[in-house]
Amino acid sequence: MAEEKNKFNENLSEDISQKLQENFFAKEFGGEYSGSRIQYEYYKSLKTKDLEYEKFIEDNYGSYDNYLRVSKVEEGLGIFDPTVDYIIDVQIVTKDKSYRTDHISAEEVIMEALTGICTVIFMKVNGSVGRITGTLEKKSIPTKQYRVRSQLFSPQKGDRIIMWDINKQDWRSFYMERVIKFIRDDTIGLE
Length: 191
Prior knowledge:
By secondary structure, the chain is α+β, with helices and mostly antiparallel strands.
């Protein structure tokens, strides 16, 4: 039974990966994501989409606008900042277009995961390649895990990010310095 479940999860992960590639190349290229209007509007919209996240931000930063400033998320600022950003191949696929950038911060990865399914490809500590198809989106996480989720709105020590792995149905983590590729695809969802 466990072997069948693992095979199903592997097939699901491969299916999602294949659809990511098909969807990405079938879309019109929307341009650079980092510092774009679409990125800024997406991050601004998180405030009203997730009340727990909004409360976390207000408790820790005073206001959402202040949080965006502190996190160096501003429209028109797509410049790599070595104090917060990591050099990573990033793809964002929306309904109509695909976007790319070559860097992203730990806070931005969390914001991307709050409303979508993300695929993260990274180097494990043992040198092998790992992949997480995960999210922090409330509707994709079991109710009994909500309390844990609310503690993951900021990076852990060493810029470790924790997401709910939709294939393994458990929390998994990765370090930002080990990420090779990050994809958020709005066209693939759980049904």
